[in-house]
Write a structure and sequence with these properties.
Shape: globular
Number of strands: 10
Number of helices: 1
Structural class: mainly beta
Order of helices and strands: EEEHEEEEEEE
Oligomer: single chain
Strand content: over 45%
Helix content: under 10%
Radius of gyration: 14 Å
Largest sheet: 6 strands, mixed
Distance between the termini: 40 Å
Amino acid sequence: QVQLVESGGGLVQVGGSLRLSCVVSGNYSRTYFSITAMGWYRQAPGKQRELVARITVPGSTNYADSVKGRFTISRDDNNNALYLQMSSLKPEDTAVYYCNSAFRWTGPRPTHWGQGTQVTVSS
């Protein structure tokens, strides 16, 4: 199966920016990435994991209302990489961020996850 490795998180002040990266590797990872809609999820303490941004193979994007206009998702199919540019960060954006497949905006979620990357926004 593929491996998902997220990076780029950290501690940032309110209003700051971060860019998260995700690299997909492993057997058949290039094929997997080239045919799979991908997304960024986040899980805050005591809350369920939620999908905040999704990008299809052709490049169409969707965002949760809470991040619309502040986050931008992109993908690099040549390098099996997924990115999330986050700006105007708020304390409520504090969470562990994960990348994974996102076939639909709602519905069953993947069962295999990477370690995620912690984003902490201080006020």
